[in-house]
Amino acid sequence: MLATTGFLDELFDKGLLIETGVDGIYGRSGLFEEIGDGFQNLVTRYAGTDNAEVVRFPPAMSRAVFERSGYMKSFPQLAGTIHCFHGDGAAHLDLMQTIEANGDWTKGQTASEVVLTPAACYPLYPTAAKRGPLPAEGRLYDLLSYCFRHEPSRDPARQQMFRMREFVRMGTPDQVTAFRADWLDRGQKLIAEIGLPFSVDVANDPFFGRTGKMLAVNQRDQRLKFELLIPIESEASPTACLSFNYHQDHFGKTFGLETAGPETAHTACVGFGHERVILALLKHHGTDVKAWPAAVRKALWG
Where is the secretion signal located (predicted)? Predict the structure, then answer.
């Protein structure tokens, strides 16, 4: 059985992750990044000839778009805002005096026009909508971004700042559900190729509050979200490393995405937890990468 403690300390001891003094905020070693590069190349190979349009956004996004998305209604506990100093000379003097007195200098900060990106796809929807109605075949995007969720934890697989690779499909309900079904199959083959144990199960997002409980039940009942789970920190509670999501017309309605019809577009995505898959590889194959099974090394590095 996998150990439920000590893995994070082992990663620190081996220099694969680097402590910063904040749970869930870590540096990564060159080897850690090398494993990640191999994994991303494998994902790209599995994407094959899909001809997804590559888009890369920074880990911060427009606060106005964030507010419009409805994220705060569902996940206020995870959100990260960016506050900055907007004061004058007198306010700066007060700030310095507060710091000298070991007081709470953050009271002088106010919200800026940007927030931390919670998921790689969030900045995409308004950008895509500005291009007008989708072509008849819809559109497919390839995204990769650092994301933030306020979940401080000693579980190395639950980091506050992490990378997410996503393929986002926009189109008719049939187009996007076929895309999700295809990637549900591809994702299992990909993880099997790198020798990791997994299971797939229907899931729900961590909606907040009493209303959130109803949303979670509805999401499960409609089978809108599946997760590919791999034991990392715990066998009893495996970690979601891939997710397969059907958003229905939520983002279409929110941002005015239309099909060629024109009708409100539906969207779906497959998401890969970059750090989580690297951690799964290190957990199951060991921290001595040179001793990994030849088939796994070939899958990652050829």
Answer: none
pLDDT of residue 220: 87
Residue-wise pLDDT tens digits, 29-69: 999 999 999 999 999 999 999 999 999 999 999 999 999 99
φ and ψ of 53, to 5 deg: -80, 120
- Residue holding tokens 């007198």? 90
Q: Are strands 60-62 and 139-148 parallel, antiparallel or unpaired?
A: unpaired
Q: Coil, strand or helix: which one is 264?
A: strand
What's the rounded Cα separation, in Å, for the pair 49 and 59? 28
Nearest partner of 63 among 109, 117, 130, 125, judged by Cα: 117
Q: Residue 39's Cα: distance from chain center in Å?
A: 15
Q: Which residues pair with 115 in a beta bridge?
A: 61, 81
C-alpha dist (Å) from residue 186 to 35, 49, 193, 247, 290: 20, 13, 11, 20, 27
Q: CA 118 to CA 79: how far, in whole Å?
A: 7
Residue extents of the structural domains in the chain: 7-80+118-301, 82-116
Residue 39, SS3 per DSSP: helix
**117 within 8 A of 145, measured Cβ to Cβ:** yes
| Intra-chain end-to-end CA distance of the chain, in Å | 31
**Rg, the chain, Cα only:** 21
> Rounded mean pLDDT of 207-226?
82
Q: Output the CATH code of domain 7-80+118-301.
A: 3.30.930.10
Q: Which of 122, 126, 127 is nearest to 164 (CA)?
A: 122
Pairing between β-strand 60-62 and β-strand 81-85 as defined by DSSP bridges = unpaired
State the DSSP code for 144. E
